[in-house]
């Protein structure tokens, strides 16, 4: 993390030439600025998404305006080759997604309203405190401490300016000090650093609640699109989830910067 007295300035401007609309800002460094580039080729669409012709689909199979993937027991090398409701298992075969309490190695193997925790498909955000877990997305709080679901820590001074992680104090629900959050560089004009948010802060709770709406609609989505975008998920719900999760993840970069910076770094967020 950079201290409050360490100022690193970047001269930023939007890409004005429509032929070169993308600015890979994350790759910029001192003395090596990022330059506007052409848009990368569009990724091919996963099964269950709309299409016009076979070449638009990962599977190479556009049927009735929808990409169709490989069916159960067909050979595969990754999840994207298998159809909606299926995943590519360890033996290289498409398999129907596994139900609640079934064995799993990753969340993609489970039905879309479950994540994989301790080798079992478990409903998202349902486990109470002191229940063993290794995936925070299955805990009611969204937080794990010492191998069990625990009450989420909250920021003492949410998003405060900082010079090191030790400035980013958090507290557990019982009042005991929590692990500090991270002091991160901001994209504001002064080059100030700010504390990142944590799971007990309202921004995370908004993202968690929004995700629960998302997975309620996503049962007809591909396993890799369980959080959207997917035609079965209402667009306003998807946009709300995207807003909340990016706000939580990128708060130090967003706070106190102007709309120009937001348009370059986080075009979907306007606060």
Question: Top keywords for this entry?
Answer:
single chain, about 270 residues, alpha+beta, 3-stranded antiparallel beta sheet, two-stranded antiparallel ribbon, 3 helices, about 15% helix, flat
End-to-end C-alpha gap:
24 Å
SSE string, helices as H and strands as E: EEEEEEEEEEEEEHHH
| Largest beta-sheet characterization | 3 strands, antiparallel
Report the uncertain regions. Answer: 1-10
Strand order of the largest sheet: 9-10-11
Give the count of helical stretches: 3
Assign a percent range to the helix content.
Answer: 10-25%
Query: How much of the residues is beta strand, in percent?
Result: 5-15%
Shape: flat
In total, the number of strands is 13
Chain-averaged pLDDT: 87
Radius of gyration: 21 Å
Quaternary structure of the protein: single chain
What structural class should be given to the helix and strand makeup? Answer: alpha+beta
